[in-house]
Amino acid sequence: MKPLPLPVRLAAGLAVTAVEQARKLPQQLAGLPVTVVSEALQLSMRVQQTVTELAIKGDDALAVLRPVEDEPEWATFDEDEEVDEPEDEPAEEPAHDPWEAEEQALAAEPPAALPNYDELTLPQLRARLRALSAEDLRQLLEHERTHAGRPEFTGMLTRRIANLETQQPTEAQQ
């Protein structure tokens, strides 16, 4: 017996599938609202994730065009709020005068390697590191330690100096 033509076989398969789906329809209708809501929420979350990813990429791209505030003026933290100390415990005197430290920071010259160093954000500094010599980096590190003392800046400068020092012997061998 010769097989039926492909379009006839496809039509018969489609009809059987339609009958099977029609039999399942009452069971599927009960769960349909939950399925629709679930898929709508999933779609919403995917859209939010995509928008967030695009915003992060945009922030990274725009960071080189304008400096980003390290700490916005509206941001308050627990450390910023004054706390009343109990009267029975005397307040400890600071080890150094904060006004003197501020005066020293204002009077100090900016590092010659990057005159606007104190205004740079961490990503802006990272973008300029490859153009600096080990000596320039040491000057920046010393400046950072004596002035702002920001751990993320000192860590990045220290790592870059270490990388340069490990690369120099291999370059000298070539």
UniProtKB/TrEMBL annotation:
What NCBIfam families would the database entry show?
LipDrop_Rv1109c
Q: Which Pfam families match?
A: DUF8129 (PF26450)
Query: Where would I find the DUF8129 domain in this sequence?
Result: 122-164
Q: What is this protein called?
A: DUF8129 domain-containing protein
**Disordered: annotated segments:** 69-105
Question: Which residue stretches does the UniProt record annotate as biased composition, category Acidic residues?
Answer: 70-92
Instruction: Identify the species of origin.
Output: Saccharothrix variisporea
